[in-house]
Design brief:
By secondary structure, the protein is mostly helical. Helices cover 80% and strands 0% of the residues. The chain has two domains: 215 residues, Substrate Binding Domain Of Dnak, Chain:A, Domain 2, CATH 1.20.1270; 56 residues, Helicase, Ruva Protein, domain 3 (Orthogonal Bundle), CATH 1.10.8.10. It has ten helices and no strands. The longest helix is centred in the middle third of the chain and has 62 residues. The chain is rod-shaped. 13% of the residues are buried. It comes from Durusdinium trenchii. This is UBA domain-containing protein.
Amino acid sequence: MASALRTEERWLESGQPDPVFLGMVEDFKAFDEVLQTWSEKLEIFVRGVQELSLGVQSLSEGLAEELKRQDRAFLSEGCRFREAAQEISRRDAPHSVIARFERNVEFNMSNPLKDHLDNHAKLRKDLEKRELCLTAVQDALKQVELCEELTEADLRKRLAKDEFRASKATFNKVNRSIFHWLYVLEEHRGDIIDSCLQTVKYLQYDFFSSAAHAVSHVLPQQMSFRPMTEMLPDSLQAQVQQELNLSETIEAQDVREIFVQRLLQRLVRENKDRPGAPATSTPAIQVDPLSLSSLLSHGFDEGPARRALRKTNNDTQAAMEWLLAGEPACRARTTEHRA
């Protein structure tokens, strides 16, 4: 920095502006515009988050009131959702999501940006003062040049030199402080911008993750998301038609199974009537359609469900326990076969 100051003094002696210093001033102005833009965008972002939290609160309260009037079965769910929304949007609650967000924004972004912009405003005033001092130095230098042909004993020449030295000393005093701040900003401008960027990203993540965590407490432990588009009349009609077709298919399969069972029973009786007929196994038990439908609604496959109902004589609870146990009889038979 000292060498840069000496270089600027040589440019001052020649009466011309220092290009290095001018470049630093242009970089400072660009950096100041960036921080001012960030400050304006930050205010817009904070207002947007506040409006979002108010929207969540209005939505939850409206749903709770409407559910209370329409269907009291959902009254508890509406109240829980409203409590979760208040945990997000209550600004008077010190530990709410929006209150913590506003404190973090003020401490980590708004106040530091305000301090930077205040310093930049002071630096701009100092630059204006430096321009006035520089003009005074240039005017004094012109007076010295006009008195160049005069003798050293001439009072006008001595006054011109004294004026030049005084204006130059004033300029150097103002210029050193300005140059120091410009040099510091030149060194740390990138760090300041990166710090602002990372802080904004963290504030966004902290707000949305905290809000999602507050809502997650009111969600059921096991939930399959059902979009509203699937609840439109056309979609519901297609779904009902699909279920009707499935029930007709199951009924047709049951009819064929009943025919096969009757055929097997008749063959068994005929074999029993024959002399010396080999012993046959017990005919398969007819599957109860209601029990089968109950198991299918719990997510079991049709084949294992039918085997379980035959094994348990259409006892739905016993068949479910047998399926949840992983068909132990099948595993036992597999183990014996391998042995």
